[in-house]
Sequence to fold (183 residues):
Amino acid sequence: MYPLFHPRKSKNTLVGQIIRTLIFIMIFSILGMLMLSLFPPLFRYKDEILERTFTMNMILIGLIIIGIIHFVFLRNKRKNQQIGNMSLHENYIHINGNDYPFEQIEKIRFIGNDIQGEFRGLIGYGQENAVFITLKNGQKMEFNFQQTTQNRLKEDVHLPSLFKHDILSKANYDSILSNTNYY
Fold:
């Protein structure tokens, strides 16, 4: 059984994108000012340029520290509220109290490889996994689900039945089994 969560919005990296953009601007500005200080017509301004470059280096170091703090401590702190559960069975998928027989499902796709407590640069909450379900009546469902070290998707005994019923694509099935990102 996998806990389900609402899909996350893609705007959650706005702070990180701003910090990265400022860091790149500062790096290019510092390199540009250092190149300007090498031109003979600007030798009389060399000390001024180097002082400003030093100040920009200090600002850059500050931005890098802020970026590291944001990445390590704040990036994965958004825990979602659980909205239900999903479980795979031999002939149906159980989602939030509803059973969806394989005959009603056109396709299913799993994305992600985030496992709670597993270190991959950062220790994750396991909630960055998504499942997309398309029913034959045209209804589409999208959820984030949580994997733990004890409850991995690739170890689910009913996963092969999704593939056998042609609901799960071979590429998606192989990437789940090889433990790569399930894109």
